[in-house]
Automatic annotation (TrEMBL):
PANTHER family: ALLANTOICASE, INACTIVE ALLANTOICASE-RELATED
Family: Belongs to the allantoicase family.
A Pfam entry, by short name: Allantoicase
Entry EC no(s): 3.5.3.4
The protein's annotated pathway: Nitrogen metabolism; (S)-allantoin degradation; (S)-ureidoglycolate from allantoate (aminidohydrolase route): step 1/1
Alphabetical UniProt keywords: Hydrolase, Purine metabolism
Biological classification of the source: Bacteria, Bacillati, Actinomycetota, Actinomycetes, Streptosporangiales
The encoding gene: alc
Native source species: Actinocorallia aurantiaca
Domain Allantoicase, first and last residues per copy: 14-163, 182-306
Domain of life: Bacteria
Top-rank EC class of the record's enzyme: hydrolase
Catalyses which reaction(s): allantoate + H2O = (S)-ureidoglycolate + urea
Protein name: Probable allantoicase
Database matches in InterPro entries: Allantoicase, Allantoicase_dom, Galactose-bd-like_sf
Length: 326
């Protein structure tokens, strides 16, 4: 399911809502809040019931409302969720999502003049519902435009996909597993309490809910997650962060390359601790597997390393192809 992929628009990844033509009842910034939308009945402000979402006034003239978002990382969009949670008599009956590719830091005026292409055509929406739309386009996207017809409220906009970044902006040594650079969780044993995709988010986790946590194991096995790296690289340091996980941190952890090479042997972990270990590899690693024993939670996983010159050249050539007219 495309919702297993990272939300490229999320505030957690650095996304922002740059503009909305109207936000009379509820602020546009709520669209990219990483947390689930909430609602408290009979909570009134100066403009009426307070909603955890973006809500425009009732239109009395032709037209429609829209919001412009800059993604936290440019990427290929696989699916979109237009979540109208708690909007029942005031949701938009239709919506559409477009994308554009405009690298750098364009202004709102520049975006309004950009070449926009459809990701989700104008489609019917249901109220108080997560409206899922698969995206067939495989054009690179830096910004999206959400349009609602004619007006109403949307709680969240999720733009799920895989990050593709300008390799010219990558440092000599960087986190090869980071979602913002293109690292992707590809498989896992369990995600009962928290998605493993959270392991690859930027920054420190603010609490236990911002990490990956499995249910309690009652067998002889162990939990694990597999991660495709942003590019084949040479690992130098692994970070296993159990911050906030105290009575539920793993006892030990092991990191291996997808071809079976052991990067970090099974190693004891401490609760609520950022662990760092030096690692080496004699040839590039494409993907890794993190095993935790037997179960538990982890806030972040980092794998710092470098790229060989030929890998950087290949990434630069791919990025250049995105600059060519479609």
């Amino acid at each position: 399911m495309f919702t297993d992929l990272i939300d490229l628009a999320s505030r957690s990844l650095g996304g922002t809502v740059m503009y909305a033509n109207d936000e009379f009842f509820a602020e546009r910034e709520n669209l990219i809040n990483p947390f689930e939308p909430g609602y408290s009945a009979a909570t009134f402000g100066h403009k009426g019931q307070v909603y955890d979402g973006w809500e425009t006034r009732r239109r009395r003239e032709p037209g429609h409302d829209h919001a412009l978002l800059r993604l936290g990382a440019s990427g290929l969009v696989h699916g979109v969720v237009v979540d109208t949670a708690h909007f029942k008599g005031n949701y938009p009956p239709e919506g559409s999502v477009e994308g554009c590719f405009l690298p750098g830091y364009p202004s709102v005026d520049e975006l309004e003049k950009a070449e926009w292409f459809p990701l989700v055509p104008r489609s019917a929406l249901e109220g108080d519902t997560r409206n899922h739309f698969e995206v067939a386009s495989r054009r690179l996207v830096t910004h999206v435009r959400l349009s609602i017809y004619p007006d109403g409220g949307v709680a969240r906009l999720r733009v799920h996909g895989e990050a593709v970044v300008d390799p010219g902006l990558l440092p000599d040594v960087f986190d090869l597993a980071a979602a913002e650079f293109g690292g992707t969780v590809t498989d896992w044993s369990d995600r009962f309490y928290g998605s493993p995709a959270k392991l690859l988010l930027p920054g420190l986790a603010a609490n236990m809910g911002e990490g990956w946590e499995t249910k309690r194991r009652r067998d002889s096995g162990n939990d694990w997650v597999e991660i495709a790296l942003a590019a084949p690289g040479l690992p130098q340091l692994v970070e296993l962060d159990t911050s906030h996980f105290k009575g539920n941190s793993p006892g030990t952890a092991r990191v291996t390359a997808s071809d079976g090479r052991e990067l970090l042997p099974e190693t004891p972990l401490q609760p609520d601790t950022r662990h760092r270990f030096r690692v080496t590899a004699d040839k590039p690693v494409k993907a890794v597997r993190l095993d935790i024993h037997p179960d538990g939670g982890m806030a972040r996983f980092r794998l710092y390393g470098s790229l060989k010159p030929k890998t950087r050249t290949a990434l630069a050539e791919r990025w250049a192809r995105f600059q060519e007219p479609s």
